[in-house]
Amino acid sequence: MPDSGGSRAQRAHIPTSGTGPGTDADLRTGPGADGDPTVPHGDAGALAVDPAAPQVTAPAGLPDAPVTPKAPGAPGLAGPAAKAARRTGLLVTLVLGGLTALPPLSMDMYLPALPAVTDSLSAPAATIQLTLTACLAGMALGQLVVGPMSDRWGRRKPLLLGMVVYVLATAICALAPTAELLIGFRLLQGLAGAAGIVIARAVVRDLYDGVEMARFFSTLMLISGVAPIIAPLIGGQVLRVTDWRGIFVVLTGVGIALTLVVWKWLHETLPPADRHTGGVADALRTMRGLLADRVFTGYMIAGGLAFAVLFAYISASPFVVQEIYGASPQTFSLLFGLNSIGLIAVGQINGKLLVGRFSLDKVLGFGLAVIVLAAVALLLMTTGVFGEAGLVPVAAGLFVLMSAMGLAMPNTNAQALMRTKHAAGSASALLGTSSFLIGAIASPLVGIAGEDTAVPMAVVQVVCAVAAVACFLLLCRPWQRAGREAGGL
To answer: Is 122 exposed, middle or buried (0-12, 13-18, 19+ CB in 10 A)?
Structure first.
């Protein structure tokens, strides 16, 4: 069983200096470690890893992988090569962050334009709401397609294909003459945009292991977490100078720019020797095998249920904060931004301070426990156990709950992907699809009791949070792996 440092059966990915900027040394197994031949670590160049960060070493029990020595007299990483490696490492981080931020941008930039779309296309509001549902469904289902594709053909080709289709679908959305066409191409936009989500996670798995993977996921959360905050603001500013179609024009431009950056800088990370050669049947067998892994499934469901808590907040908070507790739209925007900042900040604390000092399971368990406590406190406040609660205590409870997501979400992804070195694309697809589907099921339930109470939101959050803890304890069983670690197994 894997521990927080990665599976002992997995080959270590060890970033090396090479002899100049942007080079990757060959990876080799140590003597006696199966005798594998030299395996190149993807393409050289843009995928250099920041040498200033703590690096991944061979898992316990295996000798460190030797690296190609630099030529005599070649500059070390303390000189210009170090600066170049840092620049390229930062660029790859920004590219992967942009890929994961694009779907939230596609969803949230469009929100301020919904009334205008309803008037422009002379369609009922319920029909226009389907444009959001179609995009979300596309993002969920698209990951199931793109993930196995990336395991078979590598990361780069499916990602570029998805980005091109995203650009075309978004451009057609800007020209859509009817609501039905807009719904159809929003579905296609979501299907194509899913490539960025699933392949970004798979690339992280290709490059990192153990605590370094958890740290990188926390960094991605910093970048992609900003998108939901600024997207409605950008959409509102675009509507000041043009109509709703201009939002899709802006998204088309963003898609083109990101496609060019991916084509130029994001090289292949999955070596041909590690790719799957089967077809659809093989991909289904791979996913079935992943789901048969009790621990992987536990982390997947726990992460999906935590994501459902987040979805319940996003769906209900505008109504709860403004309609029930009487906050102005400006106050709601401020509170929404503060909660997003809390999530991002705790994610950075997770990556910079906690991961590496404590096991990922301990940090994850603590995060889930805080989410449960905050959700229970919100339920008690909304049901009037403490009397009539005002906006301030409810906002404080939401802030604590949202901030704790910064401990739960990156660590469930890291722990699940740590078990799936040779099927990272399929595993990433299952993680993403399960999160979106569970969240989509939970979101409508927050309004089930009408518009006069916040109790359904709190009930959904408590149920999902407690279920996440149950999955973590019953399926992942972290104490068993901790015992094996202590016994040296």
So the answer is: exposed
Helices (H), 266-328: 280-292, 294-319
Of the pLDDT bands very low, low, confident and very high (cuts 50, 70, 90), residue 209 is confident
Q: Which residues contact 115 (CB under 8 A, 6 or more apart)?
A: none
**Using CA atoms, how far apart are residues 407 and 368, in angstroms rounded to an integer?**
8
The H or E element that residue 20 is part of is none
Quick one: DSSP state of residue 320? I
Say if CB 158 and CB 202 are below 8 A apart: no
**For 163-189, b where at least 16 C-beta lie within 10 A, e where not — what string?**
bbbbbbbbbbbbebeebeebbbbbbbb
Higher confidence at residue 4 or residue 14?
A: 4
Longest Cα–Cα distance in the chain: 75
Contact by Cβ (8 Å): 406, 350: yes
Query: Looking up tokens 């950008």, which residue turns up?
Result: 234
Please tell me what DSSP assigns to residue 350.
Answer: I
Judge contact between 68 and 25, C-beta under 8 A.
yes
pLDDT in tens, 334-344: 887 788 889 88
Half-sphere exposure of 419 (CA within 13 A, CB side): 24
Q: What is the pLDDT of residue 80?
A: 52
d(CA 209, CA 9): 12
What is the reported pLDDT for 487?
45
Residues 6+ apart with CB under 8 A from 125: 114, 118
Question: Nearest 5°: CA angle at 473, between 468 and 478?
Answer: 125
Q: Is the dihedral of CA 79, 26, 95, 412 positive or negative?
A: negative
- How far is Cα 105 from Cα 98, in angstroms, rounded to an integer? 10
